[in-house]
Design brief:
About 50% of the residues lie in helices and about 20% in strands. With about 325 residues, the protein is of the alpha+beta class. The chain folds into three domains: about 110 residues, Helix Hairpins (Orthogonal Bundle), CATH 1.10.287; about 45 residues, SH3 type barrels (Roll), CATH 2.30.30; about 110 residues, Alpha-Beta Plaits (2-Layer Sandwich). Strands 4-3-2-1-5 form a five-stranded antiparallel β-sheet. Strands 7-8-6-9 form a four-stranded antiparallel β-sheet, covered by helices on one side. Helix 7 packs across helix 9. The radius of gyration is 35 Å and the shape is elongated. The chain starts with 10 loop residues before the first helix and ends in a 17-residue tail after the last strand.
Length: about 325
Amino acid sequence: MENPLTLAQSPATWDDTSLNLFQCYTPPLIKIMPSSFNRWLNLTLPNILHLLGIFVIALVVNRVLRAISNLLIKHAASQTRAAQVREQQTRTLAGVLYGAASKVIWGVALLTALPEFGINVTPVATLAGLASLALGFGAQNLVRDIITGFYIILEDQYIVGDTIQFADYAGRVEHLTLRRTVLRDARGALVTIANGEIRTVSNLSRDWSQAFVDVSLAPECPIEKTMQALETAAAALRGDPAWSQTLVDGPRILGVHSFDRSSSTVRLQVRTAPTRQDEVARELRRRIQVEFQKQGIPISSVHRIELAGVSHSSQEAAQPDGAN
């Protein structure tokens, strides 16, 4: 039997076949269009006024929602951290609610206006539902990013200006949206991370930061004299008005951390305002070196170990007596 779609068909047969295929595979959605364009061209004055009324009402309601959203964000703005957190949360929630409400408003306005053109809204609503379902399946990563970003801001995990560490990335948060977090790392590069990729994050800007300074002494160095010199340097740092504002606790001497035949190590601990541990540790090392030079104490080496800050709620569990 010959294939009805072969090129050997006559022009008439080919036209008939094309028409049959078109009729078979034309989507049923074509039914949403009017049977003619007469209804479009012959809109009466009441129809036009009705359409204008729908558009104006939707526009006014949308503008009112935008004004309320901006007003809420403006009232939440302040310089304190608590107010910055509240502003970030307000901005995010207001943006989400405004975006959702705006889409609903214009969607309702569109469905209300379609009957004026003679279009049946039932197939349109069905199409919109199917499109939303397909979009939800096709944009799962995007939805995951947005949901994760929503909870990051709502739960105050971090805000713009915080220093955070995530996997192999660490830096200052330059920009935060529902979809992404932008960091400025130590090299000055901007690192963009999808919020859905963030599983565990360390916030180095909360409550306080901490550093340990280990001083390695020569074997012949008298330990008691060394302790007195370290206490003098630590007390000088605590009493300096230029540095006392950055100190949360210490510097305090924890004692001899380790010793062997070649050297002994004395450890000091200092807690500082968030992200200030580097400069405080440098100043403490400088003062220790100056004091040792005054008293003629030989130094084997001095190095620093950093410990990220934790919340005040866990402060008792992290007391210096328990440090290793």
